[in-house]
Design brief:
Blueprint: H1 6-22, E1 29-33, H2 42-47, E2 51-55, E3 65-66, E4 79-85, H3 94-104, E5 105-116, H4 123-130, H5 141-152, H6 156-167, H7 172-180, E6 184-191, H8 203-211, E7 219-225
Parallel strand pairs: 1-2, 1-4, 2-3, 4-5
Antiparallel strand pairs: 5-7, 6-7
Length: about 230
């Protein structure tokens, strides 16, 4: 089994109850888009009796994983549920990816989405996060951006927009619009997103700070159903 980092373990363990709560009953056929090199939620889904596969160019070289972009993945049968966590804002063609997801799902199939609205990651939210980064040897994506921003000498909004343009990121508003154009929305809510890199601060601390208006909630939780 491939080891995950501490931040990845915090991400998976915190989000698994949300994913599990919206899955159809096992042994449903489930595909995870963007499972990453550690397999994402696929191992947990399999442990709970699901027929789960992962699709990602960096997927593990193991049975049940497909090393390709989801837009190019050819499934062999209808899918009961699709899980996509923090992957849609990275896809090269958002519309094509979601068209393929809609085509792959059986009627009544469920789409479980955890996403990020990078446009809500304003300077107050960034500074709050950077002030809570641990000094314990972990070096995650927030550490990386703190260093690059400080070295750039740019205002935060300029740095963020330049980075998002270079990476070709889709913003949260565009993702939600594309989802709602294809699926019946069962759930749409803002949520914490930054917590895995902020240990020992937790998802509870991030949620409370957003509730107090100190930061913006940058995460998205979405559940859609194929008509």
């Amino acid at each position: 089994m491939i080891d995950t980092t501490a931040a990845e373990q915090r991400w998976l363990s915190t989000l698994w109850p949300f994913v599990q709560a919206h899955l159809p009953p096992a042994p449903s056929h489930v595909v995870e888009i963007g499972c990453g090199p550690t397999g994402g939620f696929v191992p947990a889904m399999r442990e709970h009796g699901y027929d789960a596969v992962g699709v990602d160019p960096a997927a593990p070289p193991e049975p049940g994983f497909h090393q390709t972009e989801f837009e190019n993945h050819e499934g062999t049968r209808p899918v009961d549920a699709i899980v996509a966590c923090a992957s849609l804002h990275h896809v090269s063609d958002l519309d094509r990816a979601l068209d393929r997801a809609a085509a792959a799902l059986a009627p009544g199939g469920v789409l479980i989405i955890v996403e990020w609205s990078y446009e809500k990651f304003d300077e107050a939210t960034a500074r709050w996060s950077f002030d809570r980064l641990p000094d314990n040897g972990e070096h995650g994506w927030l550490h990386h951006h703190r260093e690059l921003w400080l070295a750039s000498g740019q205002p935060w909004h300029t740095y963020l927009d330049d980075w998002a343009e270079r990476e070709g990121l889709h913003n949260g508003h565009a993702i939600v619009q594309a989802l709602q154009a294809r699926f019946h929305t069962r759930l749409l809510t803002e949520a914490p997103y930054l917590f895995p890199d902020l240990y020992p601060s937790s998802v509870t601390h991030e949620r409370a700070a957003a509730h107090r208006g100190e930061i913006r909630a940058t995460g998205i939780r979405y559940i859609g159903v194929k008509p």
